[in-house]
Amino acid sequence: MTAIYEPAPAILPLTLENMGYSAGGVPLLSGVTLRIPAGRRLIVMGANGAGKSLFLRLCHGLIDPTAGRRLWATGAARAEAQAMVFQRPVLLRRTAAANLEYPLALKGIPPHPRRESVERAMARFGLSALADRPARLLSGGEQQRLALARAWVMRPQILFLDEPTSALDPSATRMIEEMVMQFSDDGITLVMSTHNLGQARRLAQDVAFLHRGQLLEHQTAETFFAGPQTPEARAFLAGDLVW
Amino acid sequence: MANPHRFILAGLSGLALWAALPANAQEFITLASTTSTENSGLFGHILPLFEQETGIAVRVISLGTGQALETARRGDADVVLVHARAQEEAFVAQGYGVQRIDVMYNDFVIIGPVSDPAGLRMAANAPAAMAAIAVAEAVFVSRGDDSGTHEAEKTLWANAGIVPEGRWYLSTGSGMGATLNTAAQLPAHALTDRATWLSFANRGDLDILLEGDPLLFNPYGIILVNPELHPHVKARQGQAFIDWITSQAGQAAIASFTIGGAQLFFPIAQ
Amino acid sequence: MDGALGIALGLIASGDPALMQIIMLSLRVTLAAVAIACAIGLPLGAALALSRFPGRGAVIVVFNALMGLPPGVAGLLVYLLLSRSGPLGGLALLFTPTAMILAQTVLILPIVVSLTRSVVEDLWAEYREQLLSLGAGRWRAVPTLLWDGRVSLLTGVLAGFGRASAEVGAVLIVGGNIAGHTRTMTTAITLETSRGNLGLAVALGIILLALTLMLNAAAWGAGQWARERLG
Question: Which residues 1-30 on chain B approach chain A with CB closer than 8 angstroms?
């Protein structure tokens, strides 16, 4: 089963050196220096507009920083073996199973092992019964589960999640959280943004707190929730900081 | 289902290939001729006889005389069969054609409303009839397309000493059939060849008001496009067609074409 | 009109081989032109949607404007190109079905390119980050976007088919309306009109309309099926 995947070189830790991004002369994110080690669950917190989504996109490589550096352990600015789940995943207009096949086909994996991987992933995420259904016609929770399955089938070393449950009801949110934990159990490094405090407490091992495009705190979860060091983080945890 | 767009691409390529396949490999010549000969059904009557005899198919492009000669001038036809003697002779004189040979004639007729508002039935000859139309300012529809019929019409106006202009004179700039459809609608006068008129179905209230003037004589000539100018011209097959249509068999075929018992074209080859 | 409908039904019932040949040629010319225009226009339109180069705006405007190219002008251009005295005269393609396909392709291509560009551009805005994240680069995304835009694209292809099947000016000029060789439904209608056989002309029009209707129904059905089956 592993023969079809090239054993990818370890891409972690990810090192960000004074990373920043500005658009049209307006700095949206600046001076972020951070090291993301392998195997941890990092929760990125902050109010709306703090720069969480931008931070994830810069890390994932969808956007290149306009200042500073983003370095993977391989020395490259970009890396394979990563995946991202968006707040509203874009599912292709084809069946659920075909959506999982798509990234594997891009990697050039031949049809037979491709289909085996897809079947395993569908089973693992409880989607087997939906395999032949049009992906666009699934419910919101099912779509997000499918997006997670699509990320899993890519065998990432690191998975970015951008507020994956913000559009879902509580029961679907619970299910997604459980699945996110399974990624972690498989040794996959997680970087996930959320503005849901309960969710952050349930999932975080480490916390990065962003405020107005600045990284104000980077702590273990215990330390952060026990006593944040900046007044902004304290206000945020107290529910006073709305933006 | 894995790669549906590949199937679609394959389907598209298949269709494109089908389109590019040659239609048939039969020997043929291209004949540029006039709407009168094609629309009357003459070619439908005589060409199968020629094809049966020689195995050569004749592909007819029916155009106005001016356009037919232009098509031949560009080398896009092998043979021309038209009815505008002056233009034909110029075509040969300029070296585009080998030789002009008489084939047949039909005649023009002046048609108009059955009620004959301008009194054409009383006219002594064709120019007098044209003059009567102009004097009465009765509506006249002209081809206006430099076709053989249009040339003949201009000659008649010149003979009548009239420059046709005014609200009563309409130039359609289109073929004989379209012009007749317009005349039937208005109703109006028009000059047409007898063959097209006899085979024309949508006559409305129109009738022949004047016929029989020698000035309305309408000779057709056939010309082989000069193969020295256009080396691809199928000179042998084209000449075979010219030989046949001017032979006894061809001339008899032309004479035997009738509509409602009336003969439309009269052989005149020597 | 009653008379024309009767003539139309009679024509179909008779199975007249000349009529069947005209119908087959019309379908062959139009479908081939649509196929070629799609084979060129879909990737070209998608490439135009995804690429950025100086003068891109001008190219887009030109393709949009060419959608209004009069068929007669397209026919004349192809005629001058294929004429024995023209640059491609040696191919001896004038007055053949191939010439008619070429002329109609010229007519349809701008429709396919413009519509594809617009559909793919909108889709790319929605899909860009997801596809890049899944490992599809800009150019690898082209077939994916075309496939996901298929229902919208089908509308454009049908518009192109409609323009081609209804068109008479271009095929008349480059085909010559030769009986049994390049006579299509539309040129036959023109011919019968000029012979004053208005009933027959309308009857042929009814048959053409029925064919167009059937093809559109089939395409619509396929679109619905794809929507239900694949979202």
Answer: 1-4
